[in-house]
Amino acid sequence: MDRPMLKLEKVSKFYSANGVVTAGFSKVSLEFGLGEFVAITGESGSGKSTLLNVISGLDSYEEGEMTIFDQPTSGYSGEDMEAYRKRYIGNIFQTFNLINNYTVYQNVELVLLLSGYKRREVKARVNEIIDRVGLSKYRSTKTSKLSGGQKQRVAIARALAKETPIIVADEPTGNLDVASAADIIALLASLAKDKLIIIVTHNYEQVEPYVTRRITMHDGRVAEDKRIREAVPEKQPAAAEGAAEAPAEAAEAPERPSQIGDAPAAETAKAPANTGAERFREARHDRLSLGNTLRLGFRNTFSLPAKLLLLLFVFLFLCSGTFGAYSTFQNMNQASSDNVWSQYWNNLDARRLVLKRADGGALTEADYEKMAAAENVDTVYRNDVMLDGIFDLMDVDRNTLWNDSTGEVVNEVYMDVSAAELDRFGDLSDRVVRGRLPEKSNEAFVLLDEGYYMENQVQLCMDEDLELYVYYTNDGGMGTEGMEHRLRIVGYGYLTEEENASIRTGGMWTSGYLLGNDGLMAELQSIMLERAVTFEVTAYESAMQGGQEGVPLVVSPYVEEGEVIVPETVAAAFPYSNTYGRTIDITATNPYGSVTATFDIAAVYNAYNSNYLLDKTFNEMTQGIYMNEKDVRKFYKTENHQATVMVKEPHYIHETQAALEAEGFDVLNVREACNNEDQEMRALLNAGRTAVLFGLLLVLFFISYFIIKLIFKSQNIYFSTVRMLGGTQGSCSSLLLVELLVIFHIAFAVVAGFVYKVMDGTITRFPFLTQLTLFIEKRDFLILYGIVLVLTLLLARRYSKQMFRKTAMNAYKEEV
Fold first, then answer.
1. Which long-range contacts (CB under 8 A, 24 or more apart) does 712-716 make?
2. Residue among 500, 336, 322, 331 at smallest CA distance from 418
3. 387-419 burial, b for 16+ CB within 10 Å, e for fewer?
4. What are the Cα distances from residue 667, in Å, to 389, 590, 658, 691?
5. Which 3 state secondary structure label does DSSP give 346?
6. How would you classify the pairing of strands 37-41 and 196-200?
7. Cβ neighbours of residue 223 under 8 Å, at least 6 residues apart?
8. Measured distance CA(588)–CA(631) in Å, rounded
């Protein structure tokens, strides 16, 4: 043998464990050529299997040099060694290393797909090789159902499929009966005509009739290297004719660029005779194609049902946990957004837009229709002022209660409620718990949270048939002294969970809703306007501020419509304080405009006549302008100049605002008009919430990773086998990624579908989930998809890096 194909020069392999270094073998120098059938023997622990693993590229070496066709391998990286195995080595293992849940065909096909063959290219070749090893009847049988001899034939078929120049076999007959072992050895011997076959065996007698050379190992060294018979390749061309007589198949093989520093094809053709190099054609070593990656990934996903169910459970946990963490994050953000205040608005719902006509005019039916028709608009509130009102219902006059010092007057009924039109809630006839629905303008129906403590007070109110005083809560008090607003509660019912939540999300924490017809709503709106109306009194060209900030307006039953009774301070504005036949003008200014009315001065009161005129002593009465209640109420009634729309999706509120402005409205985003909490504190809170979210996702990631790692324990042998067959790190990572992505998409679809059904009200059995998903929008599903997708990619990357931290052989030994 003039020039070796494979050469080892003083190669040593060491192992380190617990700080102790041991030698697998030491200073081994050997040469091998094409056409040889080499048997390596020796007692257990002599280093023969370790030597075979180094030759096959499954394990690294620490000293010396190993060359393949004069190309050194000592500097090979992990990728280089993968390419070395793919191009030059076919492995036959004592334990077969088959994929048990694959069929015979799939096991042989796998090694070709890993070498870059297309699916359409391999079918005929795989079937031919299966026929060659005598397994035609078992082509579609899973290898887990085969006998030991049949499994070894599959392993040989797999090694043959690659068409590598070197085949190594470690104890290929160790687990076989005598007859099966003899068949396997004969089959291997037949392959040695145009390949290098290296076999490790304890039973030399079994292979002696076939081997061309025997190497005996002892204590990690070569004790004997004996040539039994001359290696005679199938064709032995003369040196001068070697290149010309190379097989046509080799000549037609396309040139591939070197990946591991080997000699170019032109140089290989010039190798001298008798080395076998002139007949050598390296195995194909392209990348695993995308199509085959997807095929194998899908095959692995569904081949083991138990593993599929376990992984699906993990990804359901991961997706559910991510949805939960993100929903909590959104709820915290909303809670922070709710931490706003306004001196004008009580209802600070993030979906609220307040509208007026750009020309300042009163709203018309056509205006309401435009509002309702705008995209993303959910509801239009015509009496929108009441969205900002919290009304106190009491069974005694508030002034009486406040002025009482004896403790004898106690309000037995007290409720704080939000007001809304009766028809806003649709047909309530089936929701009446007790009583009836209102019919008159002074009647009301109350919706409360079921079990709320106020329910007893509603029953008390109905039992005693009390008339309740209504007060608007803002900064306390009423706009005009003596104004009475009374109503009767004629029935009550319970809020739904959604209705109960809507009260709280708008910043209106009340006991429930007070519902009535249009007449009651107009009355309640006038109550709210009492605090918003300012008065100016003009007496003989002298202007003075009216209302509670100046000369108070006081309601009295002793004053006729169109007349007023004024104090001496007002009369002093006239010449000589003479008010006979005189009038005063009172101008009421509200948020929508102003109204001026002229009143005749009926009388002037003082300490001597107040009891006669107004039935009050001068000391106990308010020094103001006394008027008829009907005249006062006219100042609080006006055309509607303002409305509110609630949008469906708060994320698109600015687009809705722009569309409404284009329709001729002045639009105010209530939330943005509020005074937010300190911006620096808000930024810190946002950063903290984001950190909490990432922390939760990190916990989910590592929990999922460790569970997946345990589940994939059974798959480690699969990936180790793929590596030993020439699979690259990229191939293994891609196969793993496809499998995890398939399961991820199944799990995400299940969880997202469940969440969507909770959001649209189809699933209502879990109230806490309804609350949790309250601020999840449709576009958040894309965000959540991206988050879980990234987590899945990171899981695949981390696991694949763990797989390739060790050599292929070491990784395999840890799993078997």
1. 712/799, 713/815, 714/304, 714/307, 715/300, 715/307, 716/803, 716/811, 716/814, 716/815
2. 500
3. bbbbbbbbbbebeeeeeeeeeeeebebebbbbb
4. 20, 19, 8, 36
5. coil
6. parallel
7. 42, 216, 217
8. 12
Is the full-model pTM beyond 0.90?
A: no
CB within 8 Å of 526: residues ≥ 6 apart: 633, 636, 637
Residue whose tokens read 């009486």: 400
Q: What is the mean pLDDT of residues 405-414?
A: 62
Q: How far apart are CA 112 and CA 105, in angstroms?
A: 11
pLDDT of residue 115: 87
- Please answer whether residues 230 and 36 qualify as being in contact, where contact means their C-beta atoms are separated by less than 8 angstroms: no
Contacts 24+ apart (CB under 8 A), 740-744: 740/311, 740/315, 740/708, 740/792, 740/795, 740/796, 741/297, 741/792, 741/796, 742/297, 742/298, 742/301, 743/301, 743/308, 743/311, 743/312, 743/315, 744/315, 744/318, 744/319, 744/788, 744/789, 744/792
Task: Please give the structure tokens belonging to residue 119.
Answer: 């699916």
* Sheet of strand 6-17, all strands in order from the earlier edge strand to the far edge: 20-32, 6-17, 63-68, 71-72
How far is the C-alpha of 131 from the C-alpha of 147, rounded, in Å? 17
pLDDT in tens, 614-641: 998 988 788 899 999 889 888 887 778 8
Tokens of 749: 């679809």
Q: What is the three-class DSSP state of 754?
A: helix
Three-state secondary-structure class, residue 159:
helix
Q: Are 374 and 657 in contact (CB under 8 A)?
A: no
Q: In terms of pLDDT, which residue wins out, 578 or 279?
A: 578
- d(C-alpha 700, C-alpha 704), whole Å: 6
Residues 6+ apart with CB under 8 A from 298: 738, 742
For residue range 211-237, what is the model confidence (pLDDT) as tens digits? 999 999 999 999 999 999 887 554 443
pLDDT tens-digit map of 452-464: 656 677 877 777 6
By C-alpha distance, which of 432, 469, 468 is closest to 447? 432
Strands (E), 300-436: 340-341, 352-357, 377-381, 390-394, 414-421, 434-435
Helix, strand or coil for residue 64? strand
> What Cα–Cα distance (Å) separates residue 154 from each residue in 142, 158, 201, 737?
11, 6, 19, 28
Phi, psi of 85 (to 5 degrees): -65, -40
Determine what percent of the chain is predicted with pLDDT higher than 90.
Answer: 33
* Residues 215 and 39 sit within 8 Å (Cβ to Cβ): yes
- Of 64-78, 140-154, 725-739, the poorest mean pLDDT is in 725-739
Pairing type for strands 542-545 and 534-539 reads: antiparallel
d(CA 530, CA 484): 12
Q: Specify the DSSP class assigned to residue 343.
A: S
DSSP string, 323-335: HHHHHHHHHHHHH
Q: Could you give phi then psi for residue 22, rounded to 5 degrees? A: -125, 155
Which residue, 191, 129, 147, 159, is CA-closest to 139?
Answer: 129
Partner residues linked to 493 by β-bridges: 447
**pLDDT the model gives residue 328:** 81
The β-bridge relationship of strands 71-72 and 63-68 is antiparallel
227 CB-side CA count, 13 A = 10
Q: How many CA atoms lie within 13 A of 778 on its CB side?
A: 4
Are 736 and 795 spatial neighbours (Cβ–Cβ below 8 Å)? no
DSSP 8-30: EEEEEEEEEETTEEEEEEEEEEE
- Angstrom distances, CA of residue 354 to CA of 83, 589, 641: 70, 20, 11
User: Taking Cα atoms as reference points, which of 446, 442, 479, 451 lies closest to residue 461?
Assistant: 446
The candidate with the shortest Cα–Cα distance to 135, out of 177, 165, 180, 191, is 180
Distance of CA 292 to the CA centre of its chain: 29
Q: Which residues contact 384 (CB under 8 A, 6 or more apart)?
A: 354, 642, 643, 644
